[in-house]
# Entry
Amino acid sequence: MENLIKKVKKEHLLNKEELVELLSDNSINEKLFSAADEIRHECVGDEVHLRALIEFSNICKRNCFYCGLRAENKNAQRYRLTAEQIVETAKIAINKGYKTIVLQSGEDSFFSAERLADIIKKIKQCDVAVTLGVGELSFDDYKILKNAGADRFLLRIETTDENLYKKLHPNMSLNNRKQCLYNLKELGYETGTGCLVGLPEQTIDSLAEDILFFKELNADMIGIGPFIPHKDTPLGNAQSGDFTLALKVMALTRLMLPYINIPATTAMETLVPNGRNIALQSGANVVMPNMTAMDYRKKYEIYPDKVSVDYSTLKENLSKIGRIISKDKGNSKNRRDI
Ligand code: SAH
Ligand code: SF4
# Structure
């Protein structure tokens, strides 16, 4: 088992059987986490890149079984920020020193590509990177957004298990999700994907396949989140995902794709106290503080009890583990060849 860790540290490649072996054996966890931490230090350094997250609409036409924003959740109190509010929030973040603005929402058709493009152009008047997380759109819409100045896009594959994907995503398809990711890559976006860990019926085998998919896509960013049940969804009574397993998937992803950006996800910090710092010491190098105004933030309830962190607490926490806040945009080093 230790030889497998040595191998992936050097070659950044494992096959499915090897990934399954490492994911199934809990006696090597500490070694795996330190290997990922070493590779993180060597390949992307000790700087932590901060991304200002703006959750600009919780209106969603989809019905993902795990998510509190799903269209059929009648208990969700819906909101949509105006273009002015979005740009204003971005400016507040920029004045605080953030160099990346992440615009995230449900799949809200009100925000057509043209509407979003106008917002992106306004934010891009400042010297910042813009990341979008607005779900599945056509190639042409992704192109409009790219031309407006969007730099990066986050679209998790969620799970590469075709049957499970089908069960959890009514009227959606794994193939289309993959096509969207390839389209984003082709258009020159820094492309982020990732998966949920601990979905009902998800297997270790399929998590290994998820990691292989990240490698095949040559993703530039990967976000791994433990699944957290939300009571107003069909998975309301399911068990939470396992933090350690999510951490292992993340650590193996760092070892397989050494130069990418990996956030310590909010779901990790929500599930376990100090989860953020543990993730940052097991392969992660990004944190996404929430900048959404409080009234709305409470309503953007993808899962319950989502934690937030303020800048000064974060800075203090990071310095305790010997990490510093980056002052640049923190582009993915995965694309250093471009
Ligand atoms: N609508 C967009 C962006 C918002 S959802 C999209 O789907 O891409 C952002 C992410 O939240 C999703 O990719 C999913 O992985 C995560 N998420 C949704 N429900 C969750 C839950 N119950 N627990 C943990 N993460 C969840
Ligand atoms: Fe909508 Fe995204 Fe939630 Fe799915 S995960 S219901 S697309 S907000």
Q: What stands out?
A: The first strand starts at residue 47 and ends at 50. Residues 312 and 318 are 10 Å apart (CA to CA). The pocket of S-adenosyl-L-homocysteine (ligand 1) is lined by residues 66-67, 104, 106-107, 133, 135, 155-156, 158, 196, 225, 227-228, 230, 267, 302-303 (CB under 6 Å). The longest helix spans residues 29-44.
